[in-house]
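Hi Y.,

Following your request, here is the sequence exactly as I used it, all 411 residues.
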Amino acid sequence: MPTDKKRKRTDDEPAPPVRRSPRKSAEEARKAQKEQAERDAEAKRLLFLEELRSEIRRRKPDPKGDSGDGNLYVSFVEVGQGDFAVLSTPGGKVILFDGGSLGTDHESIEGTKIPNSDADLIKRMRDVLADTKFLGQKNLIDILILSHPDGDHYNKLRKVLGNDYTIGKCYHSDSFGQYTSDKTSEFLFPRIGLTQQVVKNHDPGKVNGEVTLQGKPVQKKDTETNITVDRLDDDGGILIVDEGAACQISIIAAGVAHEYTNDGSDDTNRGSVVTLVQAHGQKLLMMGDATKNTEQFLLNTAKDRITGLDIVQIAHHGSVLTSSSQKFVNVVNPIEAIASSGRKLVKHRHPSKEVILRYVAKLKERPDIDKHVTYIWPPTGEGKVEAYESTKSVFSTGSRGTITRVFKASR
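Below is the corresponding structure, written out as tokens. Let me know if you'd prefer a different format.
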């Protein structure tokens, strides 16, 4: 007899097929294709990286140089309006800080362009990199730090590195795709083992932010997994090199976006990666184009760590408009201050007279510092460049040339 009741499915009967809309099925197919394409691209990139490393090893033997002798070495390379510094740790790790310059980097004192200046610049950058204090004949750069995506901080890396070097890790502010000048990101990506966008902008009690690598929160040291780097250090920085008591390197600011003060900066400069290097009881602070807002973040979150530095890289090439506030200079109170800037470059007017004099006023006379000239500029648009004589340890690479310093191991 007919009935309206729905018959129950028995346990051994197959479940009816789930009906999917054509639109949902198409979306899932596209997602699967995209994920597969990403896996294929990553596999292709890693294969290229391994093949390039194998080729380099065949071309360049890998004997040890002087790096790893227990000392820390750092060179601030003369690149005009730009930034390029090379560091080797006591244990022999090699770190690049930026690597760019604008086209005016090699003007003569009179301001006229010197023929082949770009070729000369690239040669000098490569020569420092290949110095035995750094890579020597080695071909692996352990870490590249890209402070921010302004071309004068990275646009020469393609020519400097070529197919002679590969990179273990890259820490950068902003997305990696922002480093477009001279197709740098496209060139670098297959040559880097791991890229990490770094954000370190949490200011407890004042500004909600984050401490992340590639979007993932940075964790404390995990004794179970023995993770020693890419973790929080004891003071809340992001530890990227850990050689025990000999050397520790931490990122202490990156991606700072909050406006503590109106310094006229943009998010790009304000978000510069700031790196603290500690070795053999001495401290070096690498500032990139950090601004007064970045400085205030550091004063709020890392004041004790940056007090009484041995060396500070003067932020933003010595600009007074955006950087080097008096209170920041008072706190860092360094033994030595170094600006990466050009020589008599009218377009940029770096370093600023006011910034140089702020540091000069804080520093003591040193018998090991000879009288030297630094070309400094009055405020933008006012007056001509001045030749400033001093016996204080404040330098500009444009006036002094490449500057190399060492933190020696105690014997």
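The chain has one domain: 45-406.

Thanks again,
Q.
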